[in-house]
Amino acid sequence: MSGLSLRGVSHGYGAGSRRVAVLHAITLAVEPGEVVALLGPSGSGKTTVCHLAAGFEEPDAGTVEVDGRSPATAADWSLVAVVPQQHGLVEGLGVEENVLLPTYRSTTAAVPFARLADELDLGAFAHRRVGETSLGEQQRIAVARGLVLSPRVLVLDEPTGHQDDDRAELVTAALVGAARVGSAVLVSSHDSRVRAIADRVLRLDEGRLLHD
Ligand SMILES: Nc1ncnc2c1ncn2[C@@H]1O[C@H](COP(=O)(O)OP(=O)(O)OP(=O)(O)O)[C@@H](O)[C@H]1O
């Protein structure tokens, strides 16, 4: 199927007999064109879901697919792009270089940097190195990098955590815009501003999806 699909996914951390299960048989799908918010208390497993969807880790059980392929083997940010909670930027490189990193190994057409800078209010610091920007600015740089290849699946982990209301609105508008051009968007968040723009809300509690 198109978009993101997790079927019967269980996962844990730790080796051997010390392994602790943190996700229990999660099944969810995010279709192209929709924004799905993943809510849940701290420690409920949201980041773990994001990492599995991104292909950073393989599940202990079950399957994870992006457009019918394993994200772990695809390693292609036009297929699945990620905005990690810790941003994962290269501090010594410039803002534009960071945003364009996924394009260097891709033949997919890139969204022009100037457009992303405008949409996410990066202009005032676009000439600096990332190490010379604030946390909120870095978060928006990471969102721009996630959007640059118009990915089939976009996974974001708490992407408004460091934003004021006006900038959070820019970020949420960018997510809606990505969905409008066909991305399947999964966004982990505690933020009511994200919940407000989501087409659907999923709730995670102690590694299990709650059903309304
Ligand atoms: N690398 C790891 N090794 C061991 N345990 C981990 C590891 N990463 C996460 N955990 C544990 O797995 C559980 C789920 O963590 P996860 O980061 O997915 O939760 P979360 O819902 O994203 O939390 P938060 O909202 O605080 O970011 C937590 O109990 C956490 O302590």
TrEMBL record:
Q: Which SMART domains does UniProt cross-reference here?
A: AAA (SM00382)
GO function terms (MF aspect): ATP binding
In this chain the ABC transporter domain maps to 4-212
Is Flavoprotein among this UniProt entry's keywords?
Answer: no
| Keywords, sorted A to Z | ATP-binding, Nucleotide-binding
Q: Does the keyword Coiled coil apply?
A: no
Q: Do you know which PANTHER family this protein is assigned to?
A: ABC TRANSPORTER RELATED (PTHR24220:SF685), IMPORT ATP-BINDING PROTEIN (PTHR24220)
Name-wise, this protein is: ATP-binding cassette domain-containing protein
